[in-house]
Amino acid sequence: MRAESKRASEASARLVTPTMWLVSLMFPSPTPSWTLHPQLASDTVNLGDLPLCQVLVIQDANYPWLLLVPRRPDIVEVLDLDEVEQAQLMTETTRVARALREITKCDKLNIAALGNVVPQLHVHVIARRKTDAAWPRPVWGVVPPVDHDPEELKQFISAIRKKIWLG
After folding, report:
1. What phi and psi, each to the nearest 5 degrees, are found at residue 55?
2. Which of 98, 143, 144, 155 has the fewest other C-beta atoms within 10 Å?
3. Alpha-carbon span 155 to 59, nearest angstrom
């Protein structure tokens, strides 16, 4: 009887609700072959995972700067994602951008997927101020990166996580 009870318990633990099944079809778990590009890994701090994207903070205190990286292998362009994933990427980008704008009270958001240096698809979400070092130009290469103050970075990450429902 115990063996039957154990099998029944294991089977019930494997039951998938209709909602879980639908979510798994829409956003399958990333395959084990997905890895973050080494350049992105070295330039960022991991903030957390949304359903599709890993959210990262660029290690440059000159600008409040986030990246969203879809956890899918071998994706270079937005059009390499299927239509559902493209819509999810836009939803997650908008969620992160709104949180960043609210927290930073910035003058402008720059949102871009360039990939000229790092081919792995990633979306930049950068809070810009008219007083920042690069205004009104793009941020790349204008001034050397500045290290974050560890306590300020911790507070920033906590605030962003709360706004995008990760914490």
Report:
1. -105, 130
2. 144
3. 14
Q: Answer whether residue 109 shows pLDDT above 50.
A: yes
Task: Classify residue 9: in a domain, yes or no.
Answer: no
Whole-model pTM? 0.80
CATH code for position 42: 3.30.428.10
* Region 48-53 average pLDDT: 97
In the predicted structure, residue 136 carries a pLDDT above the cut 80: yes
Q: Does any domain span residue 130?
A: yes
Any domain includes 16: no
111 domain residue, yes or no: yes
Higher per-residue pLDDT: 46 or 13: 46
Q: Please state the rounded mean pLDDT for residues 99-124.
A: 97
How many CB atoms lie under 10 A from the CB of residue 9?
Answer: 10
DSSP per-residue string spanning the chain:
-HHHHHHHHHHHHT---HHHHHHHHHSPPPPTT----HHHHHHEEEEEE-SSEEEEEES-TTS-EEEEEE--TT--SGGGS-HHHHHHHHHHHHHHHHHHHHHH--SEEEEE---SS--S--EEEEEE-TTSTTTTS-STTTS---PPPHHHHHHHHHHHHHHTT--
Reading the block at residue 89, the tokens are 């990427």
